[in-house]
Amino acid sequence: MDRGRLSGFLFALSAFTMWGVLPIYWKLLRAASPFEILSHRILWSLILVMMILNFRGNARIRKGLGVKDLLLLMVTSLLIGGNWLIYVLAVNSDRIIEASMGYYINPLLSVFLGMAVLREKLGKLKAIALILAICGVLYITIDYGRLPYIALSLASLFAMYGLLKKMSHVDPMQALGVEVMFLSPLAMGFILFKGSTGEGSFLDGGLVMTLLFIFAGVVTTLPLYWFAEATRRIDLSSVGFMQYIAPSIMLLIGVLIYGEDFTTAHIISFGLIWTALGLYTFSTVKELRKTPATTWR
Asked: How is the chain split into domains, by residue range?
């Protein structure tokens, strides 16, 4: 394996591992409200993205972007902001397992959106996989007596985000900069409001809490940067297969570290979803064998 591909796999492994262990980080900030955590995540991400872009020599994050690009990024900023908020809410309300389910469902939902919006063809195995995933969600819905709305919200928002990013041709880091820039006025306004009322955790929560808020930008931006670098160095199918590292780590953290219940209903529901993912992966491998391998560098 050449050094470029090796570095690509290492970037992907680093990104998905960090995404997987993030529940532990957000648990450390549990004393703060989810909206305050989200606000700091946005603000410090903007600062770090601007530093990265400045280092790369393109500090003007809106340079070369047209009105259509900006409108698209405005929508994606709302989608990713909503995803970040629901994720923190899930972690700090002891629903890490349900959050992990969302990221298992996400690629299958992306398949559905590709078929419905982009008119992509859906093979028999992928169709069966989609049906099995739906059955898994329906089973746990019946057992819960309610929809697993956190899982479905996370999967839906991120699948829509991925769809719109696929339709965009903006540099990933530049796009992230614009997205957090759109969200930053609300974030800054909320942080100032909380500070003025004496209810904010930043600075008043002690040195450790303050540092955790500041580094929220690092744990948000770095895995996205690593992910973008991975897609430039290895084929997208390899990146796709590795994406299951994150929800698998999340599931283990929820069960083994935080003691969340993993019931018989979870076993059956996740079993259906894992079977669906197995069929999806097998179908993807078959398709790749019919086409020349592509390496992104």
From this structure: 3-289
